[in-house]
Amino acid sequence: MSETRVLVVDDSDTTRTLIARTLERAGFAVTVASDGAEGAAAALRELPAVVVTDLDMPVMDGHQLLRLLKSEPATAGTPVVVLTSHGEARSRFWGRETGADAYLTKDGEPDQLAATVTRLAATVRTPERADPAPTLGTLDVLTRVVRQLDTRLLHVTLVNTLLEKGLRAGDVGAACAVTFEVARNVADVQLLAVGVTEPDAAALHVQIDHPVSLDASRVFNDAVMAAMNVPHGVTTAVRVTGTPEGDGDVDTSAMAVFPLPLRDAEGVLALLPSEPQRFAAASRPLLQELTPHIALVLDNARLAQRLQQLSTHDGLTRLLNHRAIHERLASENERAARYGRPLTVILCDLDHFKLVNDTHGHLAGDAVLRAAAWAMARNLRECDAIGRYGGEEFMAVLPEDGLEAGVRVAERLRQALAERPVTLPSGATVPVTGSFGVASRAELPVGATADALMRLADSRLYEAKAAGRDCVRP
Q1: What is the pTM of this model?
Q2: Which of 71, 229, 380, 452 has its CA 20 to 30 A from that of 3?
Q3: Strand 385-388 and strand 102-105: pairing?
Q4: CA R_g for the chain
């Protein structure tokens, strides 16, 4: 075992001698150093199998020595034993955090130290130096410590910025915006993206930072979606911030993709660096360290978004629920009254829905409700709102639309239902139709409430049902 070298670092001549003798009796070759800076220089020069260090030392203490050794490629895998008179929890915690592989107190048995060093030395292969041993002075070592501390300070600052802003994000889009901001502080990029894939949904958020052509932007989006592992049959919703302009091209072979460890989902952070070689050397490792924190921010935003949706959306159809659509109607009615703008409401009742449940069962009824909700929602504008008002009743709120426009929309919704019969797992096909009542705020006296507008639409819905169903009544 004489070829197995151990470095002992301690500022006490007596302690250093006692430790060295203990390890030499155990068969190790021992090198000694009197402070952290001298120990760091010796470790980088000789590449010992194990380092045994005190904590309280002049020039550079044991924690700083630990951080330096664990950050240097040549000594990152070298086991370090902290041997100190400190036994308190704070000292043990910080020793573990800075990279200690074992923590012993000086009042312990000498055999325990020898056994610990023997165990650690057996777990590692002493590296062979490919280049000449460096000649390092105290200033060289301290410079490396300062550089390493500066790198850690940058990392901590980025993490704090990410968490401080990101944990306030109320939805995934806002969390992605914070992620993009932090990523841009790490690297110069052309395009960034965050993709989230869940069992029944997938979303891609893209940020365009430098002018690229529309085709180049699409090529980037396709490359990211290919890395997202989206299940078959699930469509990816794409949201792009920034406008493709100019004739800039992209080389997706330089795209960097970082998996994000999300809860119950798969995520990726993808970016196209402006200078791929510089990015690989300087920015990639830092972004890799940030990915767990980015995942935490995204998971928090996903949970906040899900809670918000649970409070405002119907669980079956994913439309606004009764309370939320009624609140939307009230707010739009107040806005229309204040600014003298048009507002129209549509009420829809699915025809003979009870017969579907009685004939095919409630699961078939659920399938019909989901299909009807999807068919109507996709035929409305982004500024419109639609919700499940009751069992098989739906309400659509159309800002800036008068009665004529509302009738045209209702007719479009009626046709959308009639054109999409629902095929059940049993193979049976269920036709879907609806009766529609339309009412405009302009038909009511000045100051009319949202409830009055809804009652007028409801009365016209009954007229449509009395007229034979599958029709629109203004």
Answers
A1: 0.66
A2: 71
A3: unpaired
A4: 34
